[in-house]
Design a protein that fits this description.
The complex is a heterodimer of chains A (63) and B (317). Chain A has 63 residues and is α+β, with helices and mostly antiparallel strands. Helices cover 13% and strands 29% of the residues of chain A. Chain A has one domain. A 3-stranded antiparallel β-sheet of chain A has the order 1-2-3, with no helix packed on it. In chain A, a hairpin with a 5-residue loop joins strand 2 and strand 3. The longest helix of chain A has 4 residues. Chain A is elongated and about 60 Å long. Chain B has 12 helices and 9 strands. Chain B is of the alpha/beta class and 317 residues long. Chain B folds into 3 domains: 129 residues, NADH:ubiquinone oxidoreductase-like, 20kDa subunit (Rossmann fold), CATH 3.40.50.700; 41 residues, no CATH class; 112 residues, no CATH class. Chain B has a 5-stranded parallel β-sheet with strand order 2-1-3-5-9, with helices on both faces. A two-stranded antiparallel ribbon of chain B has the order 4-8. Chain B has a two-stranded antiparallel sheet with strand order 6-7. The chains are: A alpha+beta (63), B alpha/beta (317).
Chain lengths: 63, 317
């Protein structure tokens, strides 16, 4: 099975990778979008003083 | 002859890349000074093109973002090999930045919270990202999510640092002109920033007042003319490098240290703790402790951007 990788996908915020599998006839058999990036804001803002949250979460996306 | 640049992000928000674009019309001068070979935010290049370049082909690469997973590390090492000069761009590459706060937890803590426990996630099977996955003929890989967030110079040699979250656009531009004009300072230098502490340039008035307690921002309406620290608000100005244009302080918001430490300071957070200790209106240990105890969340206040670069570095595991 032929495999096409688009890595990285570009002109967006963040990281992404597309993998396309082609069958014997060269048709798309399956395709996957993967997001390889994680920082974990959900965890490390826990317990942070609430007035500090607006100074931290803008760093989720700066685009 | 035109220079050759690479621009890349690891564990980042893209704000450093946007700060490059925020040089406005100067972006045309940047386009004149260099051909870009990688810049995922703005242009379409693939990793395999970079892998095919000769070693040291690029004159300089600018890497923003922390090292959070094996892909960040792999591309950092790749760009190091392909670049004569490696520049850490922004707080995350420089000192770990906000993503470095994850060093308060383990890899499992983070993955469990994000994929299994978060209120908005439905994941009945409790699946977390796996490095290798297959179903029949389909095989996929993901980068390894590390236990510890690292700064760029904890994994590769870095020649220069452009600090800030994000760096001031014109400071990025002036740093790029140092590359263009062959005017770079000794290796290891911070470029595109000041040499002194932010405090020394602060427009607010200091009265050498001793602190009787630490306040949270909602507990005080600060006098707009006076030092925020002397009004009881923790401000990292005494230990943070200047160069940001005092954006926060001018808006009445105390500094959290995104420009990193001044030259002679190794650990920004502890230097701030030391500065605080010498500003307290207390002599006895118990009185000092009582005031220090009023700091809400000292770790994430004093090491907000620098935990990954600090002596603490991470939670013990």
């Amino acid at each position: 099975m032929k495999r096409i990788e688009i890595d990285p996908i570009t002109r967006l915020e963040g990281h992404g990778k597309i993998t396309i599998f082609l069958n014997e006839q060269g048709e798309v058999d399956n395709a996957y979008l993967q997001i390889p990036e994680l920082r974990g804001f959900e965890k490390f803002v826990e317990g942070l003083p609430v007035e500090e949250i607006p100074r931290v979460v803008p760093r989720i996306c700066g685009v | 002859m035109k220079l050759k640049f690479g621009i890349y992000w690891g564990a980042a928000c893209g704000g450093c890349d946007v700060a490059i674009l925020d040089t406005h019309e100067k972006i045309l001068e940047i386009a004149d000074m260099a051909d870009i070979f990688l810049w995922p935010l703005a242009m379409d290049f693939k990793y395999k093109k970079i892998r095919a370049l000769e070693d040291n082909y690029l004159d300089a690469s600018f890497f923003s973002g922390a090292i959070r997973n094996s892909e960040n590390e792999e591309i950092a090492r790749l760009l190091r090999r392909k670049s004569k000069v490696m520049v850490a761009l922004g707080a995350c590459a420089h000192i770990g930045g906000i993503p470095g706060l994850a060093n308060m937890y383990t890899r499992e803590d983070v993955l469990n919270r994000v994929y299994r426990e978060s209120e908005s996630t439905i994941n009945e099977e409790g699946i977390i990202p796996r490095e290798a996955w297959s179903e029949g003929e389909y095989e996929l890989e993901l980068p390894r999510f590390y236990n510890t967030v690292k700064t760029l110079d904890q994994i590769i040699n870095v020649e220069y640092y452009i600090p800030g979250c994000p760096p001031v656009p014109l400071q990025i531009y002036s740093a790029l002109t140092l590359v263009r004009d062959g005017m770079l300072p000794p290796k290891g230098s911070v470029i595109g920033a000041g040499d002194r502490a932010l405090c020394e340039q602060c427009p607010r008035v200091k009265e050498e007042k001793k602190l009787t307690g630490i306040k949270r921002v909602h507990e005080v309406i600060p006098d707009p003319e006076k030092c925020l620290l002397e009004q009881g608000l923790i401000c990292l100005g005494p230990v943070t490098r200047s160069g940001c244009g005092s954006r926060c302080i001018k808006s009445g918001v105390p500094c959290r240290g995104c420009y990193g430490p001044v030259d002679d300071v190794k650990d920004q957070g502890f230097a701030m703790l030391s500065a605080l200790a010498s500003s307290l209106d207390a002599k006895e240990q118990k009185d000092i402790d009582a005031i220090i105890d009023t700091i809400e969340d000292p770790l994430r206040t004093l090491h907000r951007f620098s935990l990954a670069a600090s002596m603490l570095r991470r939670k013990k595991v």
